[in-house]
Design a protein that fits this description.
By secondary structure, the chain is mostly helical. The protein is 96% helix and 0% strand. It starts with a helix and ends with a helix.
Amino acid sequence: MDAVDAGMNIIFFIFIIFLISRVANFIKHTKDKLEEMDKKIDEIREYLDNKD
């Protein structure tokens, strides 16, 4: 039973690390998309300012 418990603990630990990495990846992707949107908004503002 101890070997089975140890194996399950290792699997659980790996699963927790996997979840943390997925959340971090999602946050980074969201941050990159927000920065891209900010750049596009700035480009639109510059275009509209120059158009006048």
